[in-house]
Amino acid sequence: MSRNLPAQLAAITATDVSSYTLEWIPSQFFQQGEACQPLVTVEVLWFQRNESTQDEMEACIREHLLVETQLSVAVIFIGLDKRGYYRDGRHF
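RE: above sequence
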């Protein structure tokens, strides 16, 4: 997934593939004191774009995950404010 997904997301957003990184954080879910079936949760931190681009990205991410798992998938988009984003000490 880390080979193909970033390239597809870059094509959707017309950005460089180097702008994309994936982080996997294993987790255990609990409900009412018992371990339960996990929900695959994807957080996308991005400079917000239009809803059709967001929908296309969500579908792309979900399709890649469903090849790997049968679990439910939640994709959450978190918009970044360019005024608060720095890379190497400079505003992006």
